[in-house]
Design brief:
mainly alpha; two-stranded parallel sheet; 57 residues
Length: 57
């Protein structure tokens, strides 16, 4: 299944408030259950993001 992730999902991975949902999502992505679609807009938005968020991608 292909899914599109918004910029906020990547930041949510490191946010205590949202990690309950985002960390399992990324585990499923790493397990190959989902193919992530990224947009050029996302690339632009993450250009100045912290290193840990860039590494997550």
């Amino acid at each position: 299944m292909r899914i599109y992730l918004d910029t906020s999902v990547f930041g949510g991975y490191f946010d205590k408030e949202f990690e309950e949902w985002t960390k399992p999502l990324f585990e499923r992505i790493n397990d190959g259950e989902f193919t992530v679609l990224l947009s050029t807009m996302l690339d632009e938005e993450l250009e100045f993001a912290p290193k840990r968020i860039k590494e997550l991608i």
